[in-house]
Amino acid sequence: MTEFNYNAAAELFPTRRRLPRRQPLAYRRFAQAAQAIRFAIEDMPAESLVGAFLEVDEQRYGCDEIRRLYESAEYPLKRQSALKRDGAPS
Predict the structure, then answer these.
(1) 40 in a domain, yes or no?
(2) Looking at the 3D structure of the chain, how many domains does it have?
(3) What digits encode the pLDDT tens for the residues 25-81?
């Protein structure tokens, strides 16, 4: 993956699949790509991330790339603990 600008504006497009009994997640814009990545990984249900993509500087990143960007050593924001992300009791 080429150098990624975590400070660039970003757009997050959710999956197009309809999830039963859930309100669909809508398109969102973020001032910083790092914020969009954190939202996608920490706040979106895992099943909603499948099929979603992030657009930054006219480049598109799928769910696997979003995860790699979040796990990268260059990711500038504090990460939520894995236990909290996975729904385990704290």
Answers:
(1) yes
(2) 1
(3) 778 999 999 999 999 999 988 888 888 999 999 999 999 999 999 999 999 999 987
Residue 21 vs residue 72, higher pLDDT = 72
For 73, the domain range is: 10-85
Question: Does any domain span residue 90?
Answer: no
Cα separations in angstroms, 3 against 6, 20, 69, 78, 84: 9, 38, 10, 20, 29
pTM: 0.81
